[in-house]
Each structure stands twice: as C-alpha cells, then as structure tokens.
Write a structure and sequence with these properties.
binds zinc ion; Quinone Oxidoreductase, Chain A, domain 1; seven-stranded mixed beta sheet; 2 domains; six-stranded parallel beta sheet; alpha/beta
Length: 329
C-alpha cells in the first residue's frame, strides 16, 4: 500500500510499504480522511521534542487525526466492528499499569501514539492498524471531514471543559489556529462569551468570532492558551481574573516560563491538556448533533503525493488552517 514517510528533516516521500495485518485485538481501518497538524509539521522540520529524546525517530509515518472504515478484524474482536466507520484515540496505553487501569491510559509510560510515538505507523496511508479498545464508532451524520476533525476536537473540548466555559462565563482564547478555533466553537456551544486573540485573525473573524490583536480590557473568567508563542502562557496567567481558570494546550518551540507567584497570589486554577482521549466521545456527540460544525476549518484536501509540499509550505493566516489528506485520491 502507499504511505507517506518522513525520512529526515525536510524530507518526505510516498513509499510502497507492507499493508498491515491485524494482530489479536486489532482492527484494520481503510483511511477515509486524515489531517496534519502542528505536531506533524514539527516532525517534518525536525523540531518535534520526541525526535530529540528518543520517543520518535526517522523514518516515521505520521497521521493521528483520521477516520475510516474497518475492513479486517484480528482475533478476539467482536464482528460488529466490521464495516463500521470509526475514528480512534491516538494514545494507546498498555492497558495493564496503574495509570491505564484508572482511566488515564493517555499518560501510560509505555504508550504508543499513532503516527507519533515509538514507531507506531500513522494514518497517512491507505490502511491503519488500530487496537479495538481505541476505536470510536462514527454516526452517519459525522462525515469524513468532521470524522478526521474528532481528534483535534477532543483536545479542544477537554480545554474548554477545564476552562469551565458555560453561560455567563467570558473566555479568552490565545492563538486562532485549529485548536484555538475549535475551542472557540465548543465554548460558544457551551454558552460562553468567547474572545480570540492572535496576530492575524482574519479567518477567525470570517467565522463570526470576536477577535483582538491585543489583550482587551475586560475581565476574563478563563484563558486558554492554544498558541505556540513562548510568551503567551505567562500572559494567560497575568490576564485572567483572580480566582479564574487557565488552560495550557499550546506548545512553544522553547520553554515558556510562568511565574508561579502570579498563580498563587491570584488563586488560579491551572490545567494542562495532553491528548484528546477523554474528549473524543464528546466531540463526536457535538458534531453529530450539529452543535459544532468543524468543516469550515478545512482549507484543502490533498493526496499523499502533495503532503511534503504542504508540510514545507507556510500557512496563510487568512485561510482555513487545516489540511486534509485523502490517501486514495
Ligand atoms: Zn494533531
Ligand atoms: Zn499503561
């Protein structure tokens, strides 16, 4: 089958690779649609932290935002899964350790991450092996585009929950990229008043969001940092109202320092978010009901042959941020 492989910094190509065969407990998914995100771009440039501490190495096969159809079952997998449209958790814990057994398998020390950690192959390929425990069935009302937006949506939804966004709450979201925009959509759906801050907010404004290029002089009950700017985590803590909530989901390329005196003296509640795991079901629900429609965030759908160019290209902030891949086109 065809798969996109990153072979080194700024080097990627489509290769013919062995198609996966289902191990016991796994299914094989024919990938309908997959997305690429900032993590994938960092794997392409070589900046991704996992490349530097041994959690990932070239050659690697990216793609952790995906949906598709189950085409084969390994031993022990219930037959009902065959032919179902699914998406799934990126995080594949060992299912045995204390963290896995207490519902925190996304923090398992031995976890694989699809398309990211310890060489687990990604979804930028025609077929993907997935353990059945990681699957989430997609209703018909969640099409391929939204289906491949469940993973970033789950991340954004967890950030919105940690922010306590709801009626009567005013939330500031830093960084109008895919996660920031999805968080804004989920927070609006929860009934919160949402403001977005970014250097360039043209696309966010076109979606009807209230946008700022500097911090507006308003009291914010919660601030979500979904940016990749090293200075913004500190700004988030400084900006939020005393007693408020700060959520960190963005990652900068260098250490982003926060003065803990600000956190203590303002009595803040601070939450970090890693992974969509606990938010996947909620994201599917909200897409299925129409409460949130993520499809306007997808600006282009390309084939595997065009992935290297897309990862190397600069993003136009006036355009929708997400690029999707149809691996059989
Ligand atoms: Zn991602
Ligand atoms: Zn584990």
């Amino acid at each position: 089958m065809r798969a996109f492989v990153i072979t080194g910094p700024f080097q990627g190509e489509v290769r013919d690779v062995e198609p996966p065969v289902p191990e016991p407990g796994d299914v094989i998914v024919r990938v309908e649609r997959a997305g690429v995100c900032g993590t994938d771009a960092e794997f392409f440039t070589g900046d991704m932290a996992y490349l530097h501490d041994g959690q990932a190495r070239y050659p690697l096969r990216i793609g952790h935002e995906w949906c598709g159809v189950v085409t084969a079952l390994g031993a022990g997998v219930p037959k009902e899964w065959l032919g179902r449209r699914v998406t799934g958790d990126t995080m594949l814990g060992c299912q045995k350790c204390a963290r896995c057994r207490s519902g925190r398998q996304h923090l398992c020390a031995d976890r694989f991450e699809i398309g990211i950690r310890y060489g687990y192959p990604g979804a930028l390929a025609e077929f993907l092996p997935v353990p059945v425990f990681a699957l989430h069935a997609l209703p018909d009302s969640v099409g391929p585009v939204a289906g491949a937006m469940v993973e970033p949506g789950g991340n954004a939804l967890r950030a919105v929950r940690a922010a306590g966004a709801g009626p009567g709450e005013r939330v500031l979201i830093l960084g109008p990229g895919t996660i920031g925009l999805l968080a804004a959509m989920f927070a609006v759906a929860e009934g919160a008043e949402v403001h977005l801050l970014g250097l360039s907010t043209g696309f966010a404004e076109s979606l009807g969001f209230t946008c700022h290029t500097g911090v507006p002089d308003l009291p914010f009950d919660a601030v979500i940092d979904a940016s990749n700017a090293a200075a913004l985590p500190a700004l988030a803590a400084e900006t939020v109202e005393p007693g408020g909530r700060v959520v960190y989901i963005g990652l900068a390329g260098e250490p982003s320092l926060v003065d803990t005196r600000v956190i203590a003296l303002k009595d803040l509640k601070v939450t970090g978010v890693l992974s969509a795991s606990g938010g996947l079901a909620g994201a599917i629900e909200r897409y299925a009901s129409g409460a949130v429609d993520p499809t306007p965030l997808v600006g282009a759908t390309i084939g595997l042959d065009d992935v290297a160019g897309a990862l190397a290209g600069k993003r136009d902030p006036g355009r929708p941020p997400k690029i999707h891949i149809d691996p059989v086109s």
